[in-house]
């Protein structure tokens, strides 16, 4: 199923379907799209059904199955498709010319060096096609990792291994549109733009672009944008030092590694790691961009809190060290480094992730402020923005010592982060 050539390990030009999904007429438009993609799903003996997922707060996600008589649930799921329809106005947040380019699609799905081809080795599931406002993606398994806790050792290790693989083998220079490359060259009245160590694509450039896109209709909004720009300059001075692993301190990061974007591969495809850890794959790479490895890891660990921001789920020091150890082992293996380098990488990453722990709050807090203005999805983005920005402010108060100087208690998130076990 799909457009991936298993023998040659290449993705041909992605098919384009000149149709749109409509939120107002969901089932009819989704059916028209899936029957265009799979005409053999039409007619007697086919029963197409739709399941709306609630995991996405950027896009509408539909699982589409063909419940043919005589098939088991596993067989039905093996042919399932996840249809992702973009939220209104998300082109402000996502450079789709870059994230859906055939070159990036091939890069993420191609066969890694020195491995036999299998789905377990593929860095991302191949795309099936594009339509006007979304993508259909093969859904290999109905098992997605939910917010993880210390008890889910298998899930923890599977994600760490795959992320280490990603960061080790994917080149981080990327390609992009002229608009993306020119982001830092824009001029905006009252805004002093950042100048990262490396020009062009990076998570720093993304955050700069998002701050420029914040609403400025009121004096309060203008003041807030200026304040957030000031914070961006501050964190860049603190963290953009090129000392992380990878080329010039950057790797090609997934950028949005919440647990719903982690898929456990089916047992017949993934059987068989020596220690019984089920391999996983990642989906939804529309926020993928060069970034410090510590940002990608800190972002994944931050996502354990879920959309309801349950800070009791933040991983403790011992859990983070387990993650770093598994990541470093995978990174060294796929990078061709001697295993003696693992301990040094664990130590560097542990400290670096600690330094970056507040940045996902700033990143997704700014994102949510924009979504609060443009999104039609039923989600309280404004409240979510305040929670995520609150994580950033709590982290900064630890860094600059102002919380301790004021004699105030640590936030719950910071308490959990500093807990040993």
Would you mind describing this structure in some detail?
This protein has 421 residues and is an alpha+beta fold. The protein is built from 16 helices and ten strands. The strands form four sheets. A four-stranded antiparallel sheet has the order 2-3-4-6, with helices on one face. Strands 1-5 form a two-stranded parallel ribbon. Strands 7-10 form a two-stranded antiparallel ribbon. The longest helix has 21 residues. The N terminus is likely disordered.
Topology:
Elements: E1 16-17, H1 26-37, E2 48-52, E3 60-66, H2 73-78, E4 81-85, H3 96-99, H4 102-109, E5 130-131, E6 134-138, H5 153-169, H6 178-181, H7 203-212, H8 219-239, E7 251-253, E8 262-264, H9 267-270, E9 280-282, E10 289-291, H10 293-302, H11 317-335, H12 342-356, H13 359-374, H14 381-399, H15 402-405, H16 412-418
Parallel strand pairs: 1-5
Antiparallel strand pairs: 2-3, 3-4, 4-6, 7-10, 8-9
């Amino acid at each position: 199923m799909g457009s991936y050539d298993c023998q040659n390990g290449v993705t041909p030009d992605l098919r384009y379907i000149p149709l749109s999904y409509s939120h107002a007429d969901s089932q009819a438009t989704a059916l028209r799209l899936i029957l265009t993609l799979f005409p053999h799903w039409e007619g007697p003996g086919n029963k197409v059904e739709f399941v709306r997922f609630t995991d996405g707060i950027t896009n509408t996600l539909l699982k589409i199955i063909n419940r043919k008589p005589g098939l088991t649930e596993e067989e039905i799921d093996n042919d399932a498709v996840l249809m992702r329809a973009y939220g209104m106005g998300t082109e402000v947040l996502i450079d789709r010319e870059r994230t859906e380019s055939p070159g990036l699609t091939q890069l993420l799905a191609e066969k890694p060096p020195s491995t036999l081809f299998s789905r377990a080795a593929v860095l991302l599931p191949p795309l099936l096609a594009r339509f006007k406002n979304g993508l259909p993606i093969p859904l290999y398994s109905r098992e997605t990792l939910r917010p993880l806790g210390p008890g889910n050792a298998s899930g923890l290790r599977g994600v760490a291994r795959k992320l280490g693989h990603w960061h080790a083998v994917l080149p981080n220079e990327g390609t992009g549109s002229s608009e993306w490359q020119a982001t830092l060259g824009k001029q905006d009245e009252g805004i002093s733009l950042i100048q990262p160590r490396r020009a062009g694509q990076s998570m720093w450039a993304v955050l700069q672009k998002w701050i420029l896109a914040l609403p400025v209709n009121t004096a309060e909004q203008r003041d807030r944008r200026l304040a957030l720009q000031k914070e961006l300059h501050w964190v860049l001075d603190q963290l953009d030092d090129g000392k992380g692993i990878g080329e010039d301190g950057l790797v090609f990061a997934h950028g949005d590694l919440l647990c719903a974007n982690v898929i456990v591969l089916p047992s017949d495809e993934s059987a068989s790691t020596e220690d019984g850890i089920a391999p996983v794959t990642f989906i939804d790479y529309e926020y993928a961009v060069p970034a410090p490895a510590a940002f990608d890891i800190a972002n994944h660990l931050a996502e354990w809190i879920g959309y309801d921001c349950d800070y009791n789920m933040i991983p403790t020091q011992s859990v983070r060290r387990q993650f770093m150890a598994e990541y470093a082992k995978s990174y060294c293996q796929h990078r061709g480094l001697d295993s003696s380098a693992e301990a040094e990488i664990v130590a560097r990453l542990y400290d670096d992730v600690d330094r970056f722990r507040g940045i996902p709050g700033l990143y997704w807090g700014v994102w949510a402020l924009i979504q609060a203005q443009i999104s039609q999805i039923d989600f309280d983005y404004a409240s979510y923005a305040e929670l995520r920005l609150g994580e950033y402010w709590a982290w900064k108060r630890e860094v600059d010592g102002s919380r301790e100087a004021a004699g105030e208690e640590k936030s719950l998130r910071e308490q959990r982060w500093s807990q040993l076990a």
